[in-house]
Amino acid sequence: MAIINDNFLRLTDSYLFSDIARKVDAFTRCNPNIHLIRLGIGDVTRPLPQACIEAMHRAADELSNKSTFHGYGPEQGYDFLIEAIIKNDFEHRGIHLSQNEVFINDGAKSDTGNIGDIFHKDNTIAVTDPIYPVYIDSNVMAGRAGIPDPDGRWSNITYLPCNEGNKFVPQLPQKRPDIIYLCYPNNPTGTTLTATELKQWVDYALKNNSIIFFDAAYEAFIREDNVPHSIYEIEGARKCAIEFRSFSKTAGFTGVRCGYTVIPDEVTAYSSDGKSVPLNKLWLRRQCTKFNGTSYITQRAAEAVYSQEGKKQVKANIDYYLENARIMREGFHNTGMTVYGGKNSPYLWLKTPDGSSSWQFFDTLMNRAHVIGTPGVGFGPSGEGFLRLTAFGSREDCIEAMNRIKQTYDN
Ligand code: PLP
């Protein structure tokens, strides 16, 4: 008799997006002539940069010819992409990485979820709240989370609230965790940490022998100087941090699928008998067993992100989204609403007016302004009283949505 991993049965079903879909569906059936503007989407809408498209075409042609054909590639990724990443994403920031420290993958979701494979199930975890749900669910699957309370908090996970009271800067945990998840610029709040704030976390991790999982999937949206793009800008981070990056939001690769993980040689954890073990070697072993590499065509497309043309096109796309975010931020300010994020991030974190709940505000916005957001409580208990909006829509929709919201709340 085969026995399942019972931890999967502990997972609470995530109803967030299906509940939204159900409400939107009911509204549209009753109001077929009303165009709802969807500002809840977490997916990009602009097409891939032309440089990436051309690189994919060239790579496809190579595969059609016997002399230039590529079959299985290196599990860790092709040198041409790893070299481009090290040179363009790190070296000019004074960060020196060796080729073996970068692992190409099929997107950050896989590795932020899978990294737990190389850690014991008894490690203690700390997460910021609200949070990208993959961090928690993957720990539930591994049996690391304990049991959930009625608010959805897991007994073995330390939640670090990020709210208006602490300006969305999490406080250092009172009880030492083995592993700390940080995501900056943050999904869902759109807020960031300064170098000084991030340094406190690196210092804490070094002092307490904790490992930081740093998710920098939205790094390309950073425009302010004092916001670090990589945790390795902070002294000492090479000894305690793993960083996750993605081409999804940077270059529109949500459907193409490519990202990478950095594990410096110095970052170590302990075997059960107390020996210090480099995580880089362990992850390489894990990847060589369970992952057969990202496709050649995809890696050539990712390489093109760093070409002269690619850089310009990527910047133009991100500037477009950031301008949407600026228009939305200003629109909310003009309407007297309180909004966070949207400066170094495609996400805006809108406070519900009059103390209404996330879902009440979702309903009001849908029924009266015909605008759809994502209830903040869906990202964790500290998200209650907020709505997440994204700047990934079209310019026209952003402007129209702000007009509608202004009309709704000015009356
Ligand atoms: N990390 C965060 C914080 C995200 O918001 C997302 C996607 O929305 C990911 C990782 C996953 O990105 P990818 O498309 O690279 O798997």
General description of the model:
The radius of gyration is 22 Å and the shape is globular. The strands form four sheets. A seven-stranded mixed β-sheet has the order 2-8-7-6-5-3-4, sandwiched between helices. The mean pLDDT is 96. It contains 13 helices and 15 strands. It folds into two domains: 6-47 and 309-410, Aspartate Aminotransferase, domain 1, CATH 3.90.1150; 71-307, Aspartate Aminotransferase, domain 2. It has 411 residues and is of the alpha/beta class. Pyridoxal-5'-phosphate is lined by residues 42, 107-109, 112, 132, 183, 187, 215, 217, 246, 248, 254, 259.
Overall average residue pLDDT = 96
Assembly state of the chains shown: single chain
Residues in helices, as a percent range: 25-40%
Query: How much of the sequence is in beta strands?
Result: 5-15%
Cα(first) to Cα(last) distance is 65 Å
**Would you state the CATH class of the largest domain?**
Alpha Beta
Second CATH tier, the architecture of the largest domain: 3-Layer(aba) Sandwich
Shape: globular
Question: In sequence order, what are the helices and strands, one letter per element?
Answer: HHEHHEHEHEEHEEHEEEHHHEEHEEEH
CATH superfamily of the largest domain: Type I PLP-dependent aspartate aminotransferase-like (Major domain)
SS element count, helices: 13
- Major sheet, described briefly? 7 strands, mixed
Strand order of the largest sheet: 2-8-7-6-5-3-4
Number of strands: 15
Which structural class best describes the helix and strand composition? alpha/beta
Bound molecules: pyridoxal-5'-phosphate
In total, the number of domains comes to 2
